[in-house]
Amino acid sequence: MTEVTVNSDSGTDTSGTDTSGIDVGQPRLSVIISCRNSSATLDATLESVVTQEYTGWWELVVVDNGSRDNTAGVARRFASRVPNFTLLQPPDPGFQARGLNYGITHSKGDYLIFLDSDDLAAPGYLATMAEALKTADFVGGAMDVELLNPGWLRGRRRELQVDRIDTFCHYLPAVVGASMSARREAIEAVDGFDESLPTQHDLDISWRLHDAGYPARFVPDALLHYRYRESLYAVFDQEIGYGEGEVVLYRKFRDRGLRRRSFPQVLVDYLRTIAALRGLRDREGQARFATLLGANLGRFKGSIKTRTLYL
Q: What would be the CATH architecture of the domain defined by 2-225?
């Protein structure tokens, strides 16, 4: 099912704008959000997008990737507020990578802005990303966890993509998918996201883009407010998925140089998890323990499932 509201392109005047006031000299942007059961947070996310001030042509593409709640209804409320709006509902929904690829296929922009359905784009985000993409093929913005997360939750793990593109798995830098943008030609050069991956598709495409000659650039002035999972169980479950995903990535990239976790690395992680038991008296300590235990358990489960020593 697809719903589209599109303004047709108009002619341009001598000032470089078309008859609707669009600056045709600016990059054409496609903002793509793949979501599932996101009705609780999608409204705020879309509000942060539609209130962006961007003078070039841009479109908003929301992919309802198999929701069972009112995600599609929330998205439809924004159709009249965006000159170019598309709501997509794939007939064969899958992991988030599937939704992103579906959105890419049905989008028109030359530059792709990927957002998650529970974060907030700060003012100027689109314009800053567009400016960066004029000279870079693949970029990541700065991420903030202060605005959307209580103090007890913020301290559970190291913050990511604050002042650089972080390196993951002691291998290569990777852009966090929540604040990722790229030129269409770069994404298409690596055949898009790997739809077989339930998690870590952002690390996967970052590494494949790197190998294809599209290294990531950090854009410090493009600020994204990032939201953590809000319950201890949700944190724990997410980290299990991340841990399992690491094992899958190791199997995929070991021939390219990604190394298995060493015994000292495994030992340190397990000792840190045991040490975190001392903090279970307060919520911050519980969140940290859930994070560490979930990641280690996920790596262990992934090692068993794939019969791959990673742990």
A: Alpha-Beta Complex (3.90)
- What is the distance between the terminal CA atoms of the chain, rounded to a whole angstrom? 42
- Cα separation, 285 vs 287, in Å, equals 5
Query: Is the Cβ–Cβ distance between 217 and 141 less than 8 Å?
Result: no
Tokens 């093929």 found at? 137
Q: Give the integer Cα–Cα distance in Å for 70 and 68.
A: 7
- 88: which strand partners? 2, 63
Which residue reads 């509201």 in tokens? Answer: 5
Please, which residues bridge with residue 12 across strands?
A: 18
Beta strands in 185-267 (DSSP E): 217-225
Domain parsing of the chain, residue ranges: 2-225, 232-306
DSSP secondary structure of 10-70: --B-TTSBBTTS-BTTSPPEEEEEEESS-TTTHHHHHHHHHT----S-EEEEEEE-S-SSS
Q: What one-letter code names the amino acid at 69?
A: D
Per-residue pLDDT tens digits of the chain, which is 311 residues long: 454 444 444 444 444 666 567 898 899 999 999 999 999 999 999 999 999 999 999 999 999 999 999 999 999 999 999 989 999 999 999 999 999 999 999 999 999 999 999 999 999 999 999 999 999 999 999 999 999 999 999 999 999 999 999 999 999 999 999 999 999 999 999 999 999 999 999 999 999 999 999 999 999 999 999 999 999 999 999 999 999 999 999 999 999 999 999 999 999 999 999 999 999 999 999 999 999 999 999 999 999 999 999 87
111 beta partners? 29, 183
261-267 contact pairs (CB < 8 A, 24+): 261/299, 261/310, 261/311, 265/170, 266/311
DSSP designation for 179: G
